[in-house]
Structure formats: structure tokens, C-alpha cells
Design a protein that fits this description.
This protein is 43% helix and 13% strand. The chain is an alpha/beta fold. Strands 1, 2, 3, 4, 5, 6, 7, 8 and 9 form a nine-stranded mixed β-sheet that branches. The longest helix has 18 residues, at 397-414. Residues 1-25 form the signal peptide. This is Extracellular solute-binding protein.
Length: 434
């Protein structure tokens, strides 16, 4: 949920139909912070998300409605976070069609705090400033405006690992023990070398990894400075760490290790069940996504090991309340409950979205996941979360990442020369930044 989460995240994350989301959310537009004058006191709180945050799947909405009989929750989703964000920007500009609760991917949160603070509720007016101690410092700070506004409450973070198919590894004659694999691919060079060994004996129609775009995203997630430096200056074109991630991704493409699948595409979704790739770099939020796509037949075929190259973070999200929301107070009460330590721990246990709440992180340390062959996900992702760098976030992080992964897709799917693809990425970023 992470993947986004996201699922973009993922999400990255499991989605429905964007148009339906807009229509349902439109019922929640307005400016009142009350129950919209409903005589019976019943309220429908609308929630618009991208990918798979996991609330419905984990039964949290049903639990909240039982605790609050006057509240009904209606959630809509858009699978692709980029599509979701574009639609959200249109609705924010027009002031209509907004849900009471809107999800914000971590790569967009700087845009909210630096450019759109006037379009979201300052949650301090509902008492959110008293929640600060519940969250990791970096998670809280990222959603804080220049004047101290609290513009969102953190859901998950995206500590990274490597998910892999043990059955496919066995067929290719590779080891399946997660500790041994962590040693074999302790570096990205080691990961590619193992991929070449897999390719030599791979089952039919199966590649080493899903796409070089996912490889790039996970590698750049291991860096403190990616697209901007701490002063806010753009550095992506000259950042040596980004160049390394690009070159490693290009090498993987040239070696024929990729299934050439665009993330979040229907073909990519189907590939989880079809066994079209043996490994996928996976932030914690992607576990729920894999379960949803691979289904029950995938249970016990997947496992998780530590990530090559050290710890990193990819994704994570926030829940925010637009100024134009219809039921602001009720929306705040809902997101306060959903992001509380108890609920974050439940989400991780059932969906894999790793908590940003410090209390929940300690609570889930011993969690294992039977779907992923009993992998100690609490330990694996907990260790990654502790070691991951506190990243510098910029206004256009997500847009820049999208342009680079688009360019890498041209390399692996169209055979475009890497130098030409890099120029296309530069042009795409320039157009995005205006």
C-alpha cells in the first residue's frame, strides 16, 4: 500500500474505476464542516484513494462503522497514482468533486505543503497537533506546512525488500533460502549476476524481474538525495547515485532480464499469477498488491529476502481533508482512527503496509506472513525502516520519477538507445516543470 503504497504506490495499489470515483466524490463536495444538515444525524464520509491502502480489505471500515453507527464510509479508487493525482489536481482547481478524505502519495506531499496548503484543512483545528508523538519525526515533518500547518496524517512508509518466487527459483536450479539469497545478492551487481544464471535455465515465458523501471525506483529509494538536494535545488541530472540506478537498469534491460511489463498495466497485474517474473523489488505496501493479483494459488510460492545494496524507502502515503470537503470533522475523526497505532498494526498484519506510527512499528516486530512462506516481514521491513535514509522530498519528485521510468520503458520495450531515452527523460522533465 502501500506501492502505492501504489499499488503507486501504488500503489500502486488495487483500484476501481476513476470515473465512478469522481461521481461518488462529487456527492461530497461543498464547504461545510458539519453533517451537512442531515436531520437524522447520519453521515456518509467519502474516501478517494489510489491503489490499495487496505482499509476495506482489512475490515477497518466495517469496524469503524460498527463503532460509529451514524457513519457510512464510501471508498473509491484509481489504480494508477499518476492518473489519480492528475484528476485530483483538476478537482482541487475547480473546488468540486472532492471526497471528504483524499490520499496523498509521499512523492506529492511536498507539492501539498509548499504549493497547495490553502486547499487542504489545517488539521490542528481538530486537535491533530496532539498526535505528533505517535509518528516518526520524518513522517510528521513531511506533511507540515511552512507555518506549522498539519496537512495530512501519515499512513504507511515504504521500507524495501525483494520478493521472489521460490517455485521458479527451484525450476531454474537456484537456492531459495532467504538468508543465502541475501548474501548472494548483497550488491546490485550480485543481483544481476544471479539473474543471468536464472535466465540460462529459466522456465518458459519467465524473466528475472518485472521491469527495469521498478529496478530504478527501488534503487533510487536507497538514496537520501534523489531529485533535489537539501537546499531545494534540482540535482537529478547530475546526481551520481541516480546515474548508477539508471545504468544498472539499462544493463538489466540489455541482458534480457526483464519481462518488459509496465507497472500497474493489466498485463503486469496478470503476470503475478502467470509466473512471468521471478523477482520483484517490493516495498512493504506491495505485499497486499501481490496477494490481490496472485490470488490463493500464489500462497506459499512467494518469499521475501533483504534488498540488494542496503536499506531504502519507496512510497508511503498520507490522508488529507480538502478545504472543500463536505464532512470535515467526521473526515478528521476517521483518518485519526485509521492512522492510529492499533489500526496501522492491523493493516500491516493483514495487508503488509508498514506503519509510520512508532508504537505500531514496535508492535509488529514479530509478524510473519504465511502467504510469503512464513517470511519474518516484521523483522525484514522493520530493519529496513530503521536503516533507510531520511529522504529529501521535492515538489516534483513523482513527476521526475515517472519521466525516467517512462524513458527506461522505451529502452526495454522499444529498443531505444539509452542515450536517446535519457534525452527524452530530460525533455519530459522540462515539460513537466514548465
Amino acid at each position: 500500500m502501500p506501492i502505492t503504497r501504489a499499488a503507486t504506490q501504488a500503489v500502486l495499489r488495487l483500484g476501481a474505476v476513476a470515473l465512478a470515483g469522481s461521481l461518488l466524490a462529487a456527492c461530497g463536495s461543498g464547504s461545510s464542516g458539519t453533517t451537512a444538515g442531515k436531520a437524522d444525524g447520519k453521515v456518509t464520509v467519502t474516501v478517494d484513494l489510489f491503489g490499495s491502502f487496505g482499509y476495506k480489505e482489512a475490515g477497518l471500515y466495517a469496524e469503524y462503522e460498527k463503532l460509529h453507527p451514524n457513519v457510512t464510509i464510501k471508498q473509491t479508487d484509481t489504480e494508477d497514482e499518476a492518473d489519480y493525482w492528475k484528476s485530483l489536481q483538476t478537482r482541487l482547481a475547480g473546488g468540486g468533486g472532492l471526497a471528504d478524505v483524499q490520499g496523498i502519495e509521499v512523492g506529492r506531499i511536498a507539492s501539498v505543503t509548499q504549493q497547495q496548503a490553502d486547499r487542504f484543512e489545517d488539521l490542528r483545528k481538530y486537535g491533530a497537533d496532539g498526535l505528533k508523538s505517535q509518528f516518526a519525526d520524518a513522517k510528521w515533518a513531511a506533511a507540515t506546512g511552512k507555518d506549522g500547518e498539519v496537512l495530512g496524517l501519515g499512513t504507511d512508509v515504504g521500507p524495501e525488500a525483494m520478493c521472489y518466487r521460490t517455485d521458479l527459483f527451484q525450476q531454474a536450479g537456484l537456492p531459495t533460502d532467504r538468508a543465502e539469497l541475501a548474501k548472494r545478492w548483497s550488491t546490485w551487481d550480485g543481483y544481476l549476476e544471479l539473474g543471468k544464471q536464472y535466465k540460462a535455465k529459466a522456465p518458459a515465458k519467465s524473466a528475472w524481474l518485472d521491469s527495469v523501471g521498478s529496478l530504478f525506483s527501488i534503487m533510487i529509494g536507497q538514496e537520501k538525495e534523489r531529485y533535489y538536494d537539501a537546499s531545494g535545488a534540482l540535482i537529478w541530472e547530475t546526481n551520481p547515485a541516480l546515474k548508477t540506478a539508471w545504468e544498472t537498469s539499462v544493463e538489466a534491460s540489455g541482458a534480457g532480464l526483464s519481462a518488459k511489463l509496465d507497472q500497474w498495466s493489466p498485463q503486469w497485474n496478470q503476470a503475478f499469477a502467470a509466473g512471468s517474473f521471478a523477482t520483484i523489488p517490493c516495498p512493504a505496501w506491495m505485499l497486499g498488491y501481490i496477494k490481490g493479483q496472485a490470488g490463493e494459488t500464489g500462497k506459499g510460492k512467494w518469499d521475501i529476502a533483504a534488498l540488494p545494496g542496503g536499506a531504502g524507502n519507496w512510497g508511503g502515503s498520507y490522508l488529507a481533508v480538502p478545504r472543500a470537503a463536505k464532512n470535515k470533522k467526521e473526515a478528521y475523526e476517521l483518518i485519526k482512527w485509521l492512522t492510529a497505532p492499533e489500526q496501522q498494526a492491523k493493516i500491516f498484519a493483514k495487508q503488509g503496509n508498514f506503519p509510520s506510527s512508532t508504537g505500531a512499528i514496535a508492535e509488529v516486530a514479530g509478524t510473519t506472513d504465511p502467504y510469503f512462506s512464513g517470511a519474518p516481514i516484521g523483522q525484514i521491513f522493520g530493519d529496513a525502516a530503521k536503516a533507510a535514509p531520511v529522504q529529501v522530498l521535492g515538489v516534483h519528485d513523482q513527476n521526475i520519477n515517472q519521466q525516467i521510468t517512462n524513458a527506461l520503458s522505451e529502452v526495454e520495450r522499444k529498443g531505444l538507445a539509452p542515450e536517446k531515452a535519457w534525452e527524452n527523460a530530460k525533455k519530459g522533465v522540462a515539460n513537466t516543470l514548465g
